[in-house]
């Protein structure tokens, strides 16, 4: 019987890494990031990576881990505002960044995973990101041609997962995780709770197991808050 | 007396209608959330995958899995739904959000908006701003009229654009302008802050505009 | 306060109908069809409709109701195999049919709802459905240009819905319902159970209320089985 | 002795591998579901929005909300997941399904497949067939070798195509053919049904093929 369950993040990623590969990572800010898998990638020392993610976390957390160690050669993202190390490397020309509008980024990855090689979108027409892209009018409205993204490896963080690879995400920790899971040759999921098939209601599954090649239960879950905002009790 | 940030936001809140789905940008737009008229049912969209944003949590009740697009801890409410980033921007690009209230660095006299970067200074990114201005049918920009003595309402944006001819309404500390896309001039001054006169607005505005006060 | 709840299907559709309009309908076979809303459309007598749906049900059920009364001028679908009345009208040239591969149909509607005017797909290259469509190569593979679909009205059937319009579907009755809900000026949902906001776990909601303008609770739910297949107990 | 339908399906079942996600067409392909080798973990995809299809329900336990792509009542199993039609065809077109076993009306010597319509006779539709042959990396066609005395393995399909150069393997009651796309001839006879010889296959095959029996 096929087995998708791996004992830990390090063994799950071990034979999947090579220099110059493209890795997709779920997460938005520090929310829903596959941090244990990223740490395993950091520890492996693999280099010259192209990383596709919404934003590279902060210094030393999430994709920030790989920025610090200079394992990232190129970042495809919509935002890099809270990572000072990345900003320094970028302004010094040491790392490449391809800016994508967030919706275009999400849609490009979705297209890659869904077998759509390219699509037209009104987003970004007349801006810097339109440079070098075909523009074409539909219903009188100019649109840009954008291409699908498909990676070598996708890393996602889920709340619950079963041994078949069916995944459930929690609240806004869902974000880019489901789409990343669809758009790589190999998808590895880290989960807070590993359960048996049938324990998750089949109607609630957000990522069907078909997209998940390997799954790892986290021994302990450490979550970070980037900006704690609270209100006072009346 | 020019409007303060809270008053700019209050003016923006008057653009809301009962039943609207609304996306608020970071900065002054965020203040609009606390100024929604009583009895009006408004659902706030957060681009990271949520409709129906609640207020900040009480101290100690924050959840790292529940943040807004500004990465701040928030809460859910009974009407809340969660979804992924693809669905979130499907809503945005598909025109399902009724209105977006955004900050601005520059607005041109044809309704171009620049609000995502200052070359050489910022390494941030457009996040969802380009998608919002392309997809949401009504774009309201709230900003200080001038920055360091320079008008932010310009003939042509000198900063990288977020979108071309996308702004519908501009609310500054001095005045409110409607943008009639396709007309020239497109900018129409429709409202003044208290004790601000047209001369003061003219003196502080690099963009061409017509008066349309009533 | 905005109110989305309507007392019944007839009042929910009443002021939304005009001859020649385009109506999208969820459902696959007889599973998950918005049958009460379709019956209300039938009763209205509105004519010359373009219907977008995966398949037009069977005689007298689902879209079949509107076929019988000749209210359908054109069908955009992937299949029409089990509706004899439709077959007769089609072979007699009385109704138009635009065949779409099922995945292309789903993707076109999804594109319409998500603001994507057009996309490329490998499906259908070299077949009859490629006729008149632009063909373009991506990564050495020819693909067809397909356009988004956006309707005047969408009808969906959900299992549970709250008064905000958040919807939950059950098992394979989900099918085309969620995508149809995204791709029309007005979407009306019929639900088996209407509940208060908060009664459905916010993580499980399949169609967020933003897509639903009107919602109707069914007084009684009649579901049809097209092909009953069972096994004997050992 | 040529294979019967069950035996054709059994030969097709040998194309499965542990862990595969599999889409089965209607007709002979459906029989494959009951012939999955013991101990092999296979998840069946149903294009209407389901992975992990279970068997038919026991009498009285049918659920109108739970059907397969052939509109037959079925059941779920512990590994089952449900999703919408968009996600379902995202899996298909995106190449995530490992193999699809489909029925055929005609297969050409270059691997073209016709299996969705007979003009003037059928008002059915392609359903998901064109998406499957375009998206699934391995397409196995199972069919009777001849229909009314006419070979279904043809030089060129005369019926409307489902896809061009999409078939990887053809299993008929007489033989098994591999399709080596791009080669000429692309059809390679790799296996015979018991007591069927090459002469019989040649006599019943309009398409050009090479022998590659071992």
List the defining traits of the structure above.
heterotetramer, A: 234 residues, alpha/beta, Glutaconate Coenzyme A-transferase, nine-stranded mixed β-sheet, three-stranded antiparallel β-sheet, 12 strands, 20% helix, 28% strand, B: 214 residues, ten-stranded mixed β-sheet, three-stranded mixed β-sheet, 5 helices, 15 strands, transferase (chains A, C), CoA_trans_fam_I (chains A, C), NagB/RpiA_transferase-like (chains A, C), 3-oxoacid_CoA-transf_A (chains A, C)
Brief overview, please?
Chains A, C: It comes from Sphingomonas tagetis. Chain A is an alpha/beta fold and 234 residues long.
Helix/strand layout:
The complex is a heterotetramer, with 2 copies of chain A (234 residues) and 2 copies of chain B (214 residues).
Chain A: E1 5-6, H1 9-13, E2 22-25, H2 35-44, E3 49-52, H3 64-68, E4 72-77, H4 84-91, E5 96-99, H5 102-113, E6 118-121, E7 135-138, E8 141-147, E9 151-162, E10 167-168, H6 177-182, E11 184-195, E12 214-217
Parallel strand pairs in A: 1-12, 2-3, 2-9, 3-4, 4-5, 9-11, 11-12
Antiparallel strand pairs in A: 6-8, 7-8, 9-10
Chain B: H1 5-13, E1 21-24, H2 28-31, E2 43-46, E3 50-53, E4 76-82, H3 85-93, E5 99-103, E6 106-108, E7 113-114, H4 129-135, E8 139-142, E9 146-147, E10 150-151, E11 153-154, E12 169-171, E13 175-179, E14 187-192, H5 198-203, E15 210-211
Parallel strand pairs in B: 1-2, 1-5, 5-8, 6-11, 8-12, 14-15
Antiparallel strand pairs in B: 2-3, 3-4, 6-7, 9-10, 12-13, 13-14
Give an account of the 3D structure:
Chains B, D: One of its GO terms (molecular function) is CoA-transferase activity. Chains B, D: This is 3-oxoacid CoA-transferase subunit B. Chains B, D: Belongs to the 3-oxoacid CoA-transferase subunit B family. In chain A, α2 links the parallel β2 and β3 (49-52). Chain A contains six helices and twelve strands. In chain A, 20% of the residues lie in helices and 28% in strands. Chain A is globular. Chain A has 234 residues and is of the alpha/beta class. Chain A has one domain (5-217): Glutaconate Coenzyme A-transferase. Chain A starts with a strand and ends in a 17-residue tail after the last strand. In chain B, 16% of the residues lie in helices and 26% in strands. In chain B, strands 4-3-2-1-5-8-12-13-14-15 form a ten-stranded mixed sheet, sandwiched between helices. A three-stranded mixed sheet of chain B has the order 7-6-11, with no helix packed on it. Chain B has five helices and 15 strands. Chains in contact: A-B, A-C, A-D, B-C, C-D. β6 of chain A pairs antiparallel with β6 (118-121) of chain C.
């Amino acid at each position: 019987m096929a087995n998708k369950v791996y004992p830990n993040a390090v063994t799950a990623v071990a034979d999947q890494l090579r220099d110059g590969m493209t890795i997709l990572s779920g997460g938005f800010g520090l929310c829903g990031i596959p941090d244990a898998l990223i740490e395993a990638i950091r520890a492996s020392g693999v280099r010259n990576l192209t990383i596709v993610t919404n934003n590279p976390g902060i210094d030393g957390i999430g994709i920030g881990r790989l920025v610090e160690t200079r394992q990232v050669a190129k970042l495809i993202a919509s935002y890099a505002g809270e990572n000072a190390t990345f900003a320094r490397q970028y302004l010094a020309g040491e790392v490449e960044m391809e800016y994508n509008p967030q919706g275009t980024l999400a849609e490009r990855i979705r297209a890659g995973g869904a077998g759509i090689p390219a699509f037209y979108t009104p987003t970004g027409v007349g801006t810097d990101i339109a440079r070098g892209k075909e523009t074409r009018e539909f219903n009188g409205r100019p649109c840009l041609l954008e291409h699908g993204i498909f990676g070598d490896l996708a890393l996602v963080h889920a709340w619950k997962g079963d041994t078949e690879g069916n995944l459930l995400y929690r609240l806004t920790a869902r974000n880019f995780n489901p789409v990343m899971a669809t758009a790589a040759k190999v998808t590895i999921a880290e989960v807070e709770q590993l359960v048996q098939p049938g324990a998750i209601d089949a109607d609630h599954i957000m990522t069907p197991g078909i997209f998940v090649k390997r799954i790892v239960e986290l021994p302990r879950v450490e979550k970070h808050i980037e900006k704690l905002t609270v209100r006072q009790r009346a | 007396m020019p409007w303060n940030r809270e008053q700019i936001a209050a003016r923006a809140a008057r653009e809301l209608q009962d039943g609207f789905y609304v996306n608020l940008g970071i900065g002054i737009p965020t203040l609009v959330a606390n100024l929604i008229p009583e009895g009006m049912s408004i659902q706030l969209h957060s681009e990271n995958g949520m409709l129906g944003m609640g207020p900040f949590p009480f101290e100690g009740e924050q959840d790292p899995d529940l943040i807004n697009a500004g990465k701040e801890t928030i809460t859910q409410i009974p009407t809340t739904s969660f979804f992924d980033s693809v669905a979130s921007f499907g809503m945005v690009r598909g025109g399902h959000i009724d209105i977006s209230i955004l900050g601005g660095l520059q607005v041109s006299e044809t309704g171009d908006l620049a609000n995502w970067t200052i070359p050489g200074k910022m390494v941030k990114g457009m996040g969802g701003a380009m998608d919002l201005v392309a997809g949401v049918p009504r774009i309201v920009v709230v900003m200080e009229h001038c920055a360091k003595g320079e008008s932010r309402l310009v003939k042509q944006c000198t900063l990288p654009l977020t979108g071309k001819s996308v702004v519908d309404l501009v609310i500054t500390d001095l005045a409110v302008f409607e943008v009639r896309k396709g007309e020239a001039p497109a900018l129409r001054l429709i409202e003044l802050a208290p004790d601000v006169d047209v001369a003061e607005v003219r003196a502080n505005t690099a963009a061409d505009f017509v008066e349309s006060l009533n």
